[in-house]
Design a protein that fits this description.
single chain, alpha+beta, 5-stranded mixed β-sheet, 5 strands, 35% strand, globular
Length: 75
Amino acid sequence: MKKTTNVHVVPATDGWSAKTEGKSRAAKKFRRQSDAVEFARQMAIRNESELLIHGKDGQIREKNSYGNDPKNIQG
């Protein structure tokens, strides 16, 4: 099974950062959250991982999965 690395969009000093989970530095910084989300979404798709979008308060406000879903979920 491939180990996936989640991608986060988090508030930064001068805007927003796209960060790979477990890394101390941002992959890229942006002025607008929407630009950071689009960049991070492409990273998550390539990694087949989760995209976690944080609000200005740092709390997760949205999660999206790109290819790492369990196969046999009922409901």
